[in-house]
Amino acid sequence: MLFRTTTKLFTKLAGLHRPLALTALSRGVSSYGRQAQSRLAGKTVLLTGASAGIGAATALELVHAAAGDLRLILAARRTDRLDVLAEKITAEYPQAEVLTRALDVSDYKAVPKFVPALPAAWREIDVLINNAGMVFGLERVGEIDAQDMEVMFHTNVLGLIQLTQSVVPGMRARGRGDILNIGSIAGLDPYAGGSVYCATKAAVNSFTHSLRKELIDTPIRVLEVQPGAVETEFSLVRFKGDKEKANKVYEGTEPLTAEDVAEVITFALTRRENTVVAQTLVFPSHQGSATSLHRKS
Ligand SMILES: NC(=O)c1ccc[n+]([C@@H]2O[C@H](COP(=O)([O-])OP(=O)(O)OC[C@H]3O[C@@H](n4cnc5c(N)ncnc54)[C@H](OP(=O)(O)O)[C@@H]3O)[C@@H](O)[C@H]2O)c1
Predict the structure, then answer these.
(1) Cystine design at 68: which of 96, 209, 215, 253 (Cβ 3.0–4.6 Å)?
(2) Is residue 250 flagged as an active site residue?
(3) Does residue 201 have an active-site annotation?
(4) Ligand 1 centroid vs 7 CA: distance in angstroms?
């Protein structure tokens, strides 16, 4: 669905999403200033996993930083959520253009069809944010369900690689572009019970570094943001909808919010063209490693 706000729609939605609009107004043009705004101006951003957590927060943060002068392609499987997010964005920034599209990155053989199937005016991707990702379970080696293993690798690794492959030739031809991959502390500091997820994020890290080296003779930037503990739906997905188990992960701690990570992503993408935020490990205050989290209670 393409969201371009008409006055009527804007009026309707401004009413519906008043708290969000007021929040943004109180923040001024953006949290990064006019230079960041001009660096994002008019860019086409493809963001995966935009229906929740870090992805949804990043869509909002980027559009604030661009003061609405942005073209966003929001992709995920839950398109109903994408449509709600797109309405929020266009209600607040009528000039922003937002396209929502269904994408299952785990169907990695179909992923290369995604960009060519976009309307012609949307195919020149300036910024790809490979954020879609997930984890299943805490099983130890010997107990890991083969299907869970497959879904994690297909989503976090193969889908990410295939989508990246489909934008790199265009970025090369145009001589510009940013590719930002969401890795994890899990990719740098593997932990017991997370062997497959950690391996997928280590793969993202290796792929990101290789790609940067391959593109060294181009201005294309290859970036990675590696969050520590962030409270999103991530743990709910890990425990397949078991809220009690998911809540226990964060009990007594103060994890990052999706918005905290979105600010870091936006910071990385709005630096001067010659500045590559190659790796960014982001922890909350009381985290020291993948498994070292201070619990107050
Ligand atoms: N939360 C943390 O503690 C943490 C820490 C380090 C790294 N990360 C990474 O951060 C990224 C975002 O996670 P989050 O914390 O924001 O989790 P989240 O709230 O569960 O959001 C995950 C997003 O990924 C999308 N997604 C999952 N599988 C997909 C698929 N097959 N195809 C397309 N989209 C898919 C989901 O959309 P649909 O379900 O609608 O498709 C959703 O929008 C992930 O790569 C994750 O590994 C998270």
Answers:
(1) 96
(2) no
(3) yes
(4) 34
Tell me, what's the pLDDT at 30?
43
CATH superfamily, domain at 2-282? NAD(P)-binding Rossmann-like Domain (3.40.50.720)
The per-residue pLDDT for 13 is 36
pLDDT tens for residues 52-87? 999 999 999 999 999 999 999 999 999 999 999 999
Residue 8 tokens read as 């009527």
Active-site residue, from 201, 213, 245, 296: 201
Is the CB of residue 237 less than 8 Å from the CB of residue 135? yes
Interatomic CA distance for residues 84 and 199, integer angstroms: 34
Residue list, ligand 1 pocket, CB within 6 Å: 48-55, 76-78, 103-106, 131-134, 155, 182, 184, 227, 229-230, 232-234, 237, 258
- For 23-32, which contacts have Cβ atoms below 8 Å and span 24 or more sequence positions? 24/64, 24/92, 27/64, 29/67, 30/64, 30/65, 30/66, 30/67, 31/61, 31/64, 31/65, 31/263, 31/266, 32/65, 32/266, 32/267, 32/270
CA distance 235 to 242: 9
Q: What is the DSSP letter of 72?
A: E
Nearest to 57 by CA among 10, 93, 20: 20
Expressed in angstroms and rounded, the spacing between residue 56 Cα and the centre of ligand 1 is: 10
- What pTM did the predictor assign? 0.92
**Domain extent listing, the chain:** 2-282
